[in-house]
Design goal:
By secondary structure, the protein is mainly alpha-helical. Helix content is 79%, strand content 0%. Helix 9 packs antiparallel against helix 13.
């Protein structure tokens, strides 16, 4: 099966490169044509873009993507072998492995609201620096084969995950606001970030595989990950500026205010829209985290040669990440050719487009997970998982743009983190039900949740998107 997976990786990488070249060529032709007719300059003028120096966008893109590549590389290095380290090298039962995973998710769920408030109050850059320290510490803990230390490492990893998926994005959107960068350019940064994430994850999968081969230890990728986090700390310290949310206020008071925004629909959002955005985050990212736990044993279960011949997890992981890159390229292509907003219209047509894409991504993800549970073929499961990862590649820029448009800067990190509370509850409950004895049931439940999210997004967010006036006229200069 090594030959099969190596061939699939080559095919996926080739497809990705071809799509990347085609996308670059088409985008350059479109920009050239728009420049000749001055439509590009008129569009940027209507969105306030003419007041933004070209190098402001380039500088912000470079600052964010360099750090994003490093921290996500550190995270992805751990991906292929975290399950194998606990299960095979440390000889733990699958139930105990589930307990370790649950510890991390419970830590993330309990600290997510506080992390968001701290980021808004004390600075997003400062919290990102804390992330580098706490995640590095968790990499050290996982190298100690002693259960209390491993559990403590999972606690710090959970805190780090909450910071990673709230403070970094909030820093980017707030920096874009302060530089008066329009939403179309912010969407482009999100798309590039997902593409970079795919490249980094692919390289991390191959690197981790090689590290394990050289050292005969599943712990070696975690050591390398810690080194990358130290590098990320230095780069953030040197290149990022600080930004904040709303000023002042006790932690509990700010949490209450953020909850009222979701419940009452402040900032002209309408009651259900933020709730559906939070539902989508819970269903999709919850399914994604459960997928991290089940993809290895699911493929091993379907493999006719395992355990006699071990699966090449590094190459499989890289294939999944290249699939994610293909999803990102598809997102970029769709948004590049989407019609612009009508002149003089208060509504943002890109909001409607992203709402439709969010519904589509959830629907396709649901079908992919359902297919993986209905087939006993290793190859069918592999391609179903690749399809799911392609949806992940589209999900992050879509969801990032929706949240960046709909959530005001004052409480951005707080609300983003608050959405992660039900997400972590969903994952913890699923893991505690016994994933080892009911993998298909967990994947089936995830598929149903994603289908429900797709329907709710279609009937609520898509229908009401044209009525929404984004808070602060987001990402547009006053």
């Amino acid at each position: 099966m090594v030959t099969f997976y190596e061939l699939q990786l080559v095919l996926l990488v080739t497809s990705c490169l071809v799509f990347l070249l085609l996308e670059r060529h088409a985008s350059s032709r479109k920009r050239a044509a728009a420049a000749e007719t001055k439509e590009y300059h008129i569009d940027r003028l209507e969105n306030g873009g003419s007041t933004v120096p070209v190098n402001a966008l380039a500088t912000l893109t470079r600052q964010y993507l360099v750090v994003y590549a490093i921290v996500m590389g550190a995270d992805w290095l751990q991906g292929p072998y975290v399950y194998s380290l606990y299960r095979e090298q440390y000889g733990m039962s699958e139930r105990m492995v589930a307990v370790l995973f649950v510890t991390g998710f419970m830590s993330a769920g309990l600290t997510a609201p506080l992390v968001g408030v701290w980021a808004d109050q004390h600075g997003r850059k400062k919290l990102c620096l804390v992330f580098c320290l706490t995640y590095s510490f968790s990499c050290l803990c996982i190298n100690v084969r002693y259960l209390p230390v491993l559990l403590f490492g999972r606690l710090t990893a959970g805190v780090s995950t909450s910071i990673l998926y709230s403070a970094f994005e909030s820093w980017l959107v707030s920096s874009a606001n302060s530089s008066a960068i329009p939403s179309s350019d912010l969407s482009s940064i999100f798309g590039r970030a997902t593409l970079v994430n795919g490249f980094v994850a692919t390289a991390a999968g191959i690197t981790s595989d090689q590290l394990v081969t050289l050292t005969n230890s599943f712990a070696s990728p975690f050591v390398a990950s810690g080194g990358m986090l130290v590098l990320a700390y230095l780069v953030i310290k040197a290149s990022w500026t600080e930004n904040y949310g709303g000023g002042g206020g006790a932690t509990l008071k700010r949490l209450g205010h953020a909850f009222r925004i979701v419940r009452k629909g402040k900032f002209s959002l309408g009651n259900p829209i933020l709730l559906v955005i939070g539902l989508t985050q819970t269903c999709f990212e919850g399914s994604m985290y459960l997928f991290v736990f089940v993809w290895v044993p699911s493929l091993q279960e379907a493999s006719p040669t395992f355990p006699t011949v071990a699966l090449p997890l590094g190459y499989i992981f890289s294939s999944l990440m290249v699939s994610m890159m293909l999803g990102s390229l598809l997102y970029t292509a769709i948004t590049s050719y989407a019609p612009p907003s009508s002149p003089g219209s208060p509504n943002d047509s890109s909001l409607t487009l992203h709402a439709k894409l969010s519904s589509l991504v959830c629907a396709v993800s649901a079908l992919a997970l359902a297919l993986s549970t209905r087939s006993d073929s290793e190859r069918v499961r592999f391609w179903a998982f690749c399809t799911f990862e392609a949806c992940v590649g589209m999900y992050y820029p879509v969801q990032g743009t929706l949240k960046g448009t709909l959530i005001s800067n004052e409480h951005r990190a707080t609300l983003s983190a608050l959405f992660r509370v039900p997400l972590n509850v969903f994952v913890v409950v699923s893991l505690m039900t016994g994933v080892s004895s009911a993998r298909n049931a967990v994947l089936s439940a995830s598929s149903l949740m994603l289908a429900f999210s797709a329907l709710m997004t279609a009937f609520i967010v898509v229908v009401r998107a044209d009525e929404v006036v984004p808070p602060e006229t987001n990402l547009r200069p006053a």
